[in-house]
């Protein structure tokens, strides 16, 4: 049995790990939502690891994810996205546990306008993005055995996400104004979990060094938010017109990258199957909701 801790289990990605791994043969999952384990509580982290000495992997899905609120709440964003991953890293390093952590496409925010590789420059512009990058650095510099997945536009069951918002609004509104000048790749939580499972198996198969470091992971393809909304309505048979607007017209508080498609070649070389296209992932999600 492989013992795995999941923190941030109340979030959409944490829920996906519970859905996909709890009933999976060979996995012994210990999941903690925020009320059960606050990742900023160093003592609790140490006590948890001491009480579960056979744990091999800590999958951290907890984070401060309110991108616009972070502009006014830098202190909280820093505590949860920078300091807390540092606490986890140090404790996992001491316990010999491999830490799997998630970061964001927003850390790049560069002007390349082509799929971005892990070695391309990071130029985070928002507080959220800056704290996510600093959180990565806390982990990297701690010396802990780690995997950091930078992902984008995440959605899945039970989450506060774009797909669920469109499904809700599309049923009551005839028209929605959606941003069309931001391009990215929507990513289904279940596909992130499947990729992580492959990485864990490599680690278990004495190929630990292959899964060390920073990896991009997103569903294949690219789309604007407006076209993503149109596809959601088409596939869910919802009659709602999408009117394209600019980011400026929308007026979000925190800046978003205009082109944020991730080059996932590095992780693809390690995975059993090709990373699914976002349209395929969306179809699989819509039959679940
Ligand atoms: N969502 C996206 O589009 C996206 C894109 C790129 C990367 N990511 C990254 O992917 C990871 C998972 O995000 P997600 O989409 O699953 O976000 P989410 O649904 O907002 O889940 C985050 C969870 O972390 C919890 N949390 C916050 N502070 C905590 C703390 N101190 N201790 C324990 N739990 C805490 C939150 O609880 P409360 O709700 O009670 O605060 C929430 O349940 C994050 O690292 C995020 O930065 C997400």
Walk me through the structure:
- The protein has 289 residues and is α/β, with parallel strands linked by helices.
- It has helices at residues 12-21, 42-51, 74-95, 127-142, 162-170, 189-204, 225-235, 247-250, 265-268, 278-286; strands at 2-7, 27-32, 57-60, 98-104, 146-151, 154-155, 175-179, 183-184, 187-188, 213-216, 223-224, 241-245.
- Strand 3 (57-60), helix 3 and strand 4 form a beta-alpha-beta unit.
- The longest helix has 22 residues, at 74-95.
- The protein has a single domain, classed as NAD(P)-binding Rossmann-like Domain (Rossmann fold, 3-Layer(aba) Sandwich).
- The mean pLDDT is 97.
- Strands 2-1-3-4-5-10 form a six-stranded parallel β-sheet, with helices on both faces. It has a two-stranded parallel sheet with strand order 6-9.
- Bound molecules: NADP nicotinamide-adenine-dinucleotide phosphate.
